[in-house]
Amino acid sequence: MISGEDGQMMQWRNWRAGLVTIALLSGHAPVAAQQQPGWRDALIADIEALRSVDDANALQIGRWAEIGYQEHRSSALLQERLAKAGFKITAPVAGMPTAFVASYGEGKPVIGILAEFDALPGLSQAGVPVKQAMDGHDAGHGCGHNLLGAGSVLAAVAVRNWLAAHKGRGTIRVYGTPAEEGGGGKTYLVRDGLLDDVDVMMNWHPDSYNAAVTKSNLAMITGKFRFHGYATHASAAPDKGRSALDGVEVMNVMANMMREHIGEKSRIHYAITGTNPAPNIVPDFAEVYYFVRDPDAQEAQRLWDRIVKASEGAALGTGTTVDHEVLTGHYGYLPNTRLSQISHDNLQRVGGVIYDAQEMAFAQTLIQSFQQPVPKIDRAREIQPVELNPTDIWTGSSDVGDVSWTVPTNWIRTATYVPGTSGHSWQATAASNMSIGLKGMHVAAKAMALTTVDLMLSPELVAEVKAEFVERRGAGYRYTPLVGDRNPPLDYMK
Questions:
Q1: Of 330, 365, 396, which marks where a domain is finished?
Q2: What percent of the chain has pLDDT over 90?
Q3: Three-state secondary structure of 396-436
Q4: Do 434 and 413 reside in the same domain of the chain?
Q5: Do 433 and 424 touch, CB atoms closer than 8 A?
Q6: Are 213 and 419 within 8 A, CB to CB?
C-alpha cells in the first residue's frame, strides 16, 4: 500500500521513467484493433442508436431521486434494461437489497463497469437554470448519479452488442452499486469477493470537464456518535440534568482543536443530526455525524481513533455516556496511468460536449448564480490532458477506492455540468436533469465502451494494465476493509 503522499509521488516518478509509461506515450493502437477497421465508428454509432432508452432512464431516475440504500425503483429499472439486452442478473448481492450484478459473455477478460444511482438529500431541483425544487421531493442527483448508472448501462449494452456481432470472447459485467454518497456500497461488494475474477474495471463520474483521472483521492471513515444524558426541566431543575448536547458540543470543540495538528491533506467534517428541539428541556440524547479523510488509509484510521478518544473525553467531562457506530470506510483511489491513457485516447476520439443554442442559453443563465470565477463555457467541449506525474491529490472520497485496490480501475470524468459548477449543488442537479447532462453521459458511455473493446481485443493491453496495478499496490498487499465485518448500514440516511 502506498504510504502517504511522498511514497505516492515516488511511485509516480518511477512509473514515468519506466517501460510502461514509455509504451503509454507511444500512442499505438492494439494490433488486434488495427485489424478490424471501422469498429470504433460502428460502436459509437450503436450507442447513438441505443441512447434514447438510456436517456429516458436517466431522466426517470433523476425524477425519483432515491437516497442511499433506498434506490429500489432506480435499481429495478437498470436491471430491467440489462435483462432485456440479454444480461444474466444476480440480485440482491452482498446484503444490499438494491445492489446487483449483471453479466454477459464468457471467458476472459472479464471487464466490469460500475453503476451508481443514489441521490443526495436536500438537493431537489428541476432541470431549469434557476433554483426550483421538484414538487414532493427533497433529494436530488447533485452528483449526477442518475446519469452515472444509465450511462454505464448504455456502455455495457453497446459492448454486449459488439460481442454478439463479432462472436467475441470476453465477459462484460455491470455492478449496480448503491449508496456511494456516504453508504459505501462498493466496499461490501469488494469484501464479499464479488470482484475477485474481474481483470479491469471501468468507472466514470459526472463533472464540469472531460478527463481521464490520474490523481488519487482521500481515504475516508464515517460514523455517528450518540450521547446519552438525563432530561430535566432546564429552568426549574437544571441541576438534575446532564445534557447530551453538551457532550456533542464539547466533542466538536476538541475535534476543531485537532485541526491544528493534522496533515495538510487531512479533513474533518461533522453535522449534528439529532437532539431534543425544545430549549426548556435538558436533552437526554444528541447525535453527531463525523467524516474523517486522509490520503493514506492507515492515517485516516489513526485520525478516527483520535476522534473516538475526543468523544470519550467529552462524555467524561459532561457526565454523559457515548457510543459510536462506524458507517463507512474506504480507501483512496489507486490510479493506473496505462489505463488512463487508453481512456484518454478514446475520449479524444469521441470529443467533448457541444451545446446547442438552448443549452447555451441554459448555461448562461445558470452561471449567473455562481459565486466563484467562471471558466469559459467552451471548456465542456475540451478534453483535458493526461497528467502522467500529478503533483496533487483530489480531496474528495469515494468507495471506488476499495475497488481500485482490488482490480485495476479507470476513472473518466465528463462534462455533464456547466463548467464552473460545483458538485453537490442545485446547479449540478439541474444540468443532470436535462440535455447537457445527457450529452456528457454519452461521452462517458462511448469512451468506456471503446476502452472495454480495446482491452478485449488486446491481451497485451490487459497485461500492461495489470502489471502496473501489481507494482503500485506493492508486494504482499492484502485488502483489509476499514468497515470490519459490520453489515451494510441500510438505514444510514434515515
A1: 330
A2: 86
A3: CCCCHHHHHCCCCECCEEEECCCCCCCCCCHHHHHHHCCHH
A4: yes
A5: no
A6: no
pLDDT for residue 390: 73
Closest by CA to 334, choosing from 215, 212, 203, is: 215
CA dihedral (291, 374, 335, 99) positive or negative: positive
Closest by Cα among 467, 427, 486, 476 to 142 = 427
CA atoms 308, 313, 314, 318: torsion sign: positive
**Residue 316, domain extent:** 219-330
Across 444-464, b (16+ Cβ under 10 Å) vs e yields bbbbbbbbbbbbbbbeebbeb
The SS3 call for residue 104 is strand
Residues 6+ apart with CB under 8 A from 149: 58, 61, 74, 78, 115, 116, 117, 176
Flag whether pLDDT at 421 surpasses 80: yes
Residue 145 has pLDDT above 80, yes or no: yes
223 and 291 housed in the same domain: yes
In this predicted model, what pLDDT tens digit does every residue of 185-205 receive, in sequence order? 999 999 999 999 999 999 999
Q: What 3-state class would DSSP assign to 394? A: coil
Query: What pLDDT band is residue 36 in, cutting at 50, 70 and 90?
Result: low
CATH for 342: 3.40.630.10
What are the φ/ψ torsions at residue 184 (nearest 5 degrees)?
65, 45
Q: What are phi and psi of 36, to 5 degrees?
A: -125, 70
Asked if residue 4 lies in contact with residue 295, where contact means CB atoms within 8 angstroms, the answer is: yes
Residue for grid cell 445492489: 99
- Assess contact for 267 and 293: CB atoms under 8 A: yes
Q: Which of 330, 354, 372 is the last residue of a domain?
A: 330
In sequence order, the 6+-apart residues with CB closer than 8 A to the CB of 197 are 110
At 388 the pLDDT is 76
- pLDDT per position as a tens digit, 94-139: 999 999 999 999 999 999 999 999 999 999 999 999 999 998 889 9
H/E stretch holding 39: helix 39-64
pLDDT surpassing 90 at residue 393:
no
